Amino acid sequence: MMRAVCVDVPGGPENLVLRSIPRPIPKDGEVLIKVHAAALNRADLLQRRGLYPPPAGESDIIGLEVAGTVDGLGQGLKGNWKPDDRVMALLAGGGYAEYVSVPEELLIPVPNNLTFCQAAAIPEAWLTAFQLLVFIAQVKQGEVVLVHAGASGVGTAAVQLARLFGAVPVVTAGSREKLQLAEKLGAAAGYNYKEESFVQGVHDFTGGKGADVILDCIGGSNWEKNVSSLAVDGRWVLYGTMGGRAVEGDLLGKMLSKRGRLLCSLLRSRSLQYKADLVRAFVDRALPCFSEQPATLRPVIDSTYKLEDIAEAHRHMEANRNMGKIIVTVTPQSEETP
User: Fold this and answer.
1) Does 150 share its domain with 71?
2) Collapsing DSSP states into helix, strand and coil, what is residue 209?
3) pLDDT tens per residue, range 32-59
4) Range of the domain at 309
5) Is residue 217 situated within a structural domain?
6) How far is CA 17 from CA 60, 161, 266, 321, in A?
7) Residue 187, CB-side half-sphere exposure with 13 Å CA sphere
8) The Enoyl reductase (ER) domain covers which part of the protein (predicted)?
9) pTM above 0.85, yes or no
10) Is the pLDDT of residue 152 over 70?
11) Is the dihedral of CA 110, 266, 56, 281 positive or negative?
12) Which residues make Cβ contacts (< 8 Å) with residue 276, sequence separation at least 6?
């Protein structure tokens, strides 16, 4: 048996219940992970409310990224995984638990210099940012990338990756502290959307050209500002709708006049082959940068909560107070330095 966070009735954070359930058994091609730490994502809040169910056949337990140690091996594995190997993993579900079984293609070795808490902050957020920049937007050196929610988990990853690829990130955020964090990570400029027009800021920064790429998790409420901020032939990459899904107005005409491209992407619903290709590309191009001295890339952790305090962790994210990732510790060793 194992402890896991369950949701019997969709609703608020108070509906998250910690109970004992059967431990998963790894299938062919899977590795069983003893979870030391997991991380929160906005999708977790939606799933808790019944608005974002897991893909068919996946675990009903919330949680899209974990770090821990190899505890069991299924049949037919191709990799040289061994018990107690330190790993992090991208999940379609099952992260809020003491154990999770994962296809081996989605395992990533944890760099020796990272704790389990730091490693848990990487898989979903960093693979999402990497996917958006490399697979979807195909960002080029010197391009200006406007990153909304620049102090979020995906935002802090996107800023650093954009710099790594030779692009120029600029961000929006809702407080001076969040903008300062993003700029410390490499953002060339930042705009407080509560106090100023990011459209004017982007145009001033680019000399009227606009952003070549926009990474947008807001959606509806920002559509007109995004189009106004977009460069001719620019790419607007939509990966969330925190600001609503409905659009009213001349979206198509304005996009047509810019020759703009609206590219939409999700990661959780992708095929195993797509995710495996993404993991391999990330491991080749980005993972070594977490181990450099000094490190070129670093996960940003906002706060940590124990598994039994998962409801408080959800409330913290729902209040939009976090800068970087919110981590849930599952074992006492999760924060220890390797």
Assistant:
1) no
2) coil
3) 999 999 999 999 999 999 999 998 889 9
4) 2-124+291-329
5) yes
6) 13, 36, 28, 23
7) 26
8) 11-328
9) yes
10) yes
11) negative
12) 103, 105, 106
